[in-house]
């Protein structure tokens, strides 16, 4: 097969982890006789430095004409600590989500027995944890009207949802819950006792639930969900939630895996799909060849699956599991005996 | 001393846990020669059932003429699962917060060595955990303008903060961080890379920080904070955050203590202060005499301190620690060998 892939290296450790994914893709191409062509686009602090714009239109065009997008990470501390900055790297990520209508961010939460010791939770609380979070990505308070008084005396953000925005991701999550390998349970996380938007979420999910009679639906307030993810994570199968709550609980849930550096995500919508590790730009580690490339490589596995290459994805996952169980791991996993980012990339592509 | 206390029993397990606190107060009064008078007010589902109003004006008047307010819990499932209900119990709690300008909810997060086994975290991650969350309670998305389209096609909530709203709670938190027993560190939790209101929070905290030169200030995005609370809770001393984020991370942090049933809180503002356990109405347990009264009793200890009765508060805490270490505990702590709510209340008041 021939596939054209948009590559956005982004900020911080984004470039170095994405490079490892590209090595793996090249190895997959060689082994299975595919042809992957790459086209690079700018986004984030990197794009601001080079063009003044956190998401140049050219990047969007590159993405639109690609079969999939592989993205690294975004963000730089010089913007974080300046609350008055006019242009910020994150605007690039928010805009690409909106422009490409990437309305669902999908994050599988898995645990690896060989990494249980890294997780602050007791191992018995981790066995059997296997859930997937569907986070709405193009609505809510991230994209609502923002205001700030000239004199700095007040500010506001508004959170809006339409029935359609909720329906489309809810259908996606319900379909997913019906898959043979899932446990047919969907948990909506909201704050319906306080927020009008949450009540709309609850109403819409209640309305469409009868179309999926084999799926059991649970409703959970976000404050309770933040506890339950730690207290009893096994209870979750498919979790559905709005943008801001999803940002918080999916990062929280990443703790269960033992390292943020391991988790992949896919952002799907009406057009080209974007794949990215859930970790951020981790600027302290940038350029040191110590970042964990597994989150990016597993995002690449999700991408291969999405491109219809199931065998290929399986092999990449097998290679990843082999490195983890052979203790070929980066510094975040083993601060004493660790391998470099680039070495892990080499090992995984050699395995493939 | 003579003190007049407004008592709001509320919903679910609210009444039975609060009754134990009243027993303890009576014992304290007898031992130390104080006189506590109680005046009861309605709020929540209980108030809706009896008056149609989740917070009758009379309750507010009772609160205003009291020296402190002791509150149980709020909420009932019949409202939670009806997204179209016009009147809801929580409106009572939100209104009392607003009317009495209870702008800061203060939640200490402690761990008890004797309860480490109950916490899903490994014990070594719990040692030395001791922080306190200052959650803004009368602003943000909880109190912003809410809208919903007649035809159910959309809904919105708006989140607004003024500089004054942020300043008053920030000063409170900075002062607290300066206390001799604290570690002089304040962490602002926000989402300044996305929200305009968060950028205002960050700006205001940056502006007033120089007035507290002995306090180190840290800024953390809420998604990262949701991870750090589990990964490395020892790093926190005083945490400051807005209303919605505070709701989520303070419930999450409660997991560290081993049981939600143990944690107290105080809501302070410009007038009478309100004390309540952080647990909710837990309707499944209501009326069964199995709920944990410690959250309420420790809230009562906070209240005694606030009323200037430090010795008394200390004794109540000592009594609580004695029951926990003697394994006189409720069902949430030990499902096999447990004591009733009322028995724990008796034991603690006898000890006093
Ligand atoms: C970088 C930031 C804007 C982003 C978000 O909050 O969505 C990130 O935290 C994420 O979860 O992808
Ligand atoms: C009952 C609910 C409205 C309330 C809140 O969200 O503030 C509760 O969760 C709390 O934290 O006190």
Automatic annotation (TrEMBL), chains A, B:
Assembly and interaction partners: Homodimer.
The protein's name in its UniProt record: 3-isopropylmalate dehydrogenase
Organism (species): Flavisolibacter ginsenosidimutans
Entry keyword Endoplasmic reticulum: no
Catalysed reactions listed for this entry: (2R,3S)-3-isopropylmalate + NAD(+) = 4-methyl-2-oxopentanoate + CO2 + NADH
Alphabetical list of Pfam families matching this protein: Iso_dh
Sequence ranges assigned to domain Isopropylmalate dehydrogenase-like in this UniProt record: 4-348
Main location: cytoplasm
